[in-house]
């Protein structure tokens, strides 16, 4: 009894001191806060509940105010839903929250996505030219080849029963990322196995498990868990794969006559050349592997989810599918020729479908930042040192999109009057200098894939059945995402 009383008194004292120490200012709080624990009791136990909670917090932010507070025990977090406020933060603050860095360290080390600002600044500067339009144009051939492999592979999936086609699209996205950014073809290559793909996906699921189990925050506990053992096994698998790819590329460069490697003297070259030529100069081997892991993980998982969402939505709305067919007929006629760079700008409706899908179901619905200085926003000041959640999902469903913000309408992108005037309204790839380095890559490769896919096939689905979950930072469907693929002209 005595100990319980002491424990209670100490907790209250600690809470009182923390209220003085952690004083983020006077902001509306997300409903459901309890004394001492704040919103900790709402912490979900799995990735499905996590997405439901995020969506509810985003909706509350849009209703209650531009900035609201969520308290994880003693630690308050700012949740920001106003586009201009988010823009201000994202363009002035490059630090990511410590917890994210801590949890992702084993997976991506100090790679771009969650690396410390000091490393990120120099690596981003080094890698930006690799995502220049000139380099991306050079990938068109590979985008076409990989899309044709996918379309051929899907012949086996044609039928009247809805099926889970996810793995075909995942394999295709992974093959494309490896062939373009690392310059290694994994099709039929012994270094690749489907176990590798599974490992990458499972890593994200385990990461969410760790995030939603508060006791795993403590390294001492986490190090002793089954979860950690599983994670280590998966990581060994994915890191081995990266290492083997690097080895293949190194040998290729070493054995090819210099004049055959056309990129060597150019400032604009695929990422692998930038990385390898800086090995042991500005980059260590570890840093090179980290960057490759980041590019592969961020690239294939996001692109797969976006294309799956596109097919599920297009299959639900036959009039949209019809317009896609018409556009493809206009640009390609009856031909199944490769998509050229010039074709991409003519695929205006497919572009609208991609934009609207990435707005409606943003694959990365939120991002985090921590400011090292107080930040003046439109109506308030955020104090330095606190985690800020920038709710991209809320911005993409903000009332500025109009009364139909919660509907999927590709046509809105064809009429400037239907789009918000605010330049920070469309943010599925984030904003500021730490935005997505692969956004143009993603749209180019997906447009090519869709142009090949819809010249051959049509899809049938029902988006109303789709249920979503949040695996680490990525929004994925977890049920109801089966659909039918049928030949168009048979
Ligand atoms: C549908 C596709 C994609 C979406 C929705 C997406 C979204 C995002 C978002 C929102 C961020 C910013 C995170 C932040 O501000 O904290 C990001 C960062 C990043 N993305 Fe993407 N991404 C996509 C595709 C790709 C592709 C294809 C690649 C590579 C080929 C890629 C590579 C990266 C990298 C390296 C970063 C970290 C950038 C940095 O911190 O400097 N992404 N992505």
Give the tags.
globular, binds protoporphyrin IX containing FE, Cytochrome p450, four-stranded mixed β-sheet, two-stranded antiparallel ribbon, 9% strand, alpha+beta, 18 helices, 490 residues
Secondary-structure map:
Layout: H1 2-21, H2 47-64, E1 67-72, E2 75-80, H3 83-92, H4 98-108, H5 117-127, H6 133-137, H7 140-153, H8 166-182, H9 194-212, H10 219-222, H11 226-255, H12 271-277, H13 285-316, H14 318-332, H15 341-346, H16 348-360, E3 367-370, E4 375-376, E5 381-382, E6 387-390, H17 392-396, H18 439-456, E7 457-460, E8 467-471, E9 474-479, E10 484-487
Parallel strand pairs: 2-6
Antiparallel strand pairs: 1-2, 3-6, 4-5, 7-10, 8-9
Helix pairs in contact: 7-8, 7-18, 8-13, 9-11, 13-16, 14-16
């Amino acid at each position: 009894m005595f100990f319980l009383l002491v424990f209670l008194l100490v907790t209250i004292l600690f809470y009182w001191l923390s209220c003085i120490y952690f004083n983020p200012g006077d902001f509306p709080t997300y409903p459901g806060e309890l004394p001492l624990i704040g919103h900790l009791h709402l912490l979900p136990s799995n990735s499905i509940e996590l997405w439901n909670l995020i969506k509810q917090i985003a909706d509350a932010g849009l209703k209650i105010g531009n900035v609201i507070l969520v308290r994880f025990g003693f630690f308050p977090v700012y949740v920001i839903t106003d586009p201009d406020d988010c823009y201000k933060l994202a363009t002035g603050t490059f630090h990511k929250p410590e917890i994210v860095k801590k949890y992702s360290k084993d997976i991506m080390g100090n790679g771009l996505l969650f690396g410390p600002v000091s490393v990120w600044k120099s690596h981003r500067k080094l890698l930006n030219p690799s995502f220049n339009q000139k380099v991306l144009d050079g990938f068109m051939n590979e985008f076409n080849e990989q899309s044709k492999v996918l379309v051929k592979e899907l012949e086996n999936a044609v039928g009247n029963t809805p099926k889970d086609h996810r793995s075909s699209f995942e394999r295709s996205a992974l093959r494309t990322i490896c062939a373009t950014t690392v310059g290694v073809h994994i099709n039929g290559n012994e270094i690749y196995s489907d176990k590798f793909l599974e490992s990458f996906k499972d890593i994200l699921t385990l990461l969410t498990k760790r995030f939603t189990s508060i006791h795993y925050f403590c390294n001492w506990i986490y190090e002793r868990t089954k979860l950690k053992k599983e994670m280590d096994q998966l990581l060994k698998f994915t890191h081995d794969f990266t290492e083997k790819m690097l080895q293949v590329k190194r040998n290729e460069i070493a054995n090819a006559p210099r004049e055959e490697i056309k990129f060597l003297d150019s400032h604009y070259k695929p990422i692998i050349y930038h990385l390898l030529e800086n090995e042991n100069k500005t980059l260590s081997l570890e840093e090179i592997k980290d960057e490759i892991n980041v590019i592969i993980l961020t690239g294939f998982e996001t692109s797969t989810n976006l294309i799956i969402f596109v097919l599920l939505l297009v299959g639900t709305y036959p009039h949209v599918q019809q317009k896609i067919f018409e556009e493809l007929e206009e640009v390609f006629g009856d031909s199944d020729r490769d998509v050229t760079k010039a074709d991409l700008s003519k695929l205006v409706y497919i572009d609208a479908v991609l934009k609207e899908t990435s707005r409606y179901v943003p694959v990365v619905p939120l991002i985090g930042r921590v400011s090292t200085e107080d930040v003046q926003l439109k109506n308030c000041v955020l104090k330095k040192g606190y985690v800020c959640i920038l709710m991209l999902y809320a911005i993409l469903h903000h009332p500025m999109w109009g009364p139909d913000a919660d509907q999927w309408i590709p046509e809105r992108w064809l009429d400037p009057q239907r789009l918000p005037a605010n330049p920070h309204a469309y943010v599925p790839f984030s904003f500021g200098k730490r935005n997505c380095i692969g956004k143009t890559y993603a749209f180019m490769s997906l447009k090519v894939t869709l142009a090949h896919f819809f010249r051959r096939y049509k899809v049938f689905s029902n988006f109303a059945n789709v249920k979503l979950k949040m695996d680490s930072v990525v929004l994925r469907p977890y049920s109801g995402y089966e659909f039918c693929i049928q030949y168009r002209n048979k």
